[in-house]
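Quarterly update, task 2.4: pyridoxal-5'-phosphate-bound model.
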Amino acid sequence: MDKTEKIWLNGKLVDWADAKVHVLAHALNYGTGVFEGIRVYQTPKGPAVFRLKDHVRRLVDGCKMMGFKLEFGGKEYGEKVICEAIKDAVRANGTAVDYIKPCVFLSGEETGLNPVKVPVSFAITCVHMGNYLGKDADAGAKLITSSWQRPDNLCGPAGAKVNGAYVTSTLAKREAISHGANEAVMLNSVGHVAECTGENIFMYRHGKILTPQSAESILEGITRDSVIKIAREMGYDVLETQISRFDLISSDEVWMTGTAAEIAPVTCIDGRPIGTGKIGEVSQKIHARFHDIATGKVPEYECWLDYVN
Ligand SMILES: Cc1ncc(COP(=O)(O)O)c(C=O)c1O
């Protein structure tokens, strides 16, 4: 990750080094925040934010779940105003920006758990992220099955990006790295495949594309939704269903989808090769189409792009 110059904080653009919180901020101690990760792509019409309205809708829904009031500097922040603030933050940081991280969090100083009446802040950070999984994963990512379970809806709102819930993802990610893998796939509380630490998962087997259904305690990824739509349009059968660890390991292809990782093929899980052990054709075709759409080369999908300028 490369830093940028300005961070949008509660309605003002401040220098990167000045965007600070107190050590007793409620969010720092209890994980009380909701965040997003959004990509910016370079297109012939300049930088465009990919599926901005969908990301903002998920952020606002998460804040509603957490009971956060979206009012900063005396101004109410509805979805449209948030979209504009995000574009302002991108504009303020030049053309290197490829990833935006908005975060609404309880910034007030508080020792107790009670979140009611703790002041809320809203930060929008822009960075240059590049390749999220690292060069090592370019020829196909290696996965382990994590010993950590994907938290379900009884542990918190699985469909919202709540900061504190990501402790499990960081444990699983650490576990993957310590085993020489790039990512970890997490099973849910009934042992079905759920998703990776920051990505959804897809498989191709017996001529069909399968991905865990939303009831499997997954985050309903926006890239997941894009891939389902693109794959169906390309003529593939896509099923949202239950997937076992056996199904996954015996598939012809596996790939992950996420804003940060984009479409990342998987060639090995728990030391076993997936299919031929090389990047598969289906994920490559979908990736190529996704890339054309995100970089503004497909007029029918312009509605997924929010131009910054
Ligand atoms: C746990 C988890 N699953 C899946 C995803 C993929 O979601 P999206 O495609 O909306 O980035 C993310 C990233 O936001 C995530 O954090």
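Highlight for this quarter: The chain has a mean pLDDT of 96.
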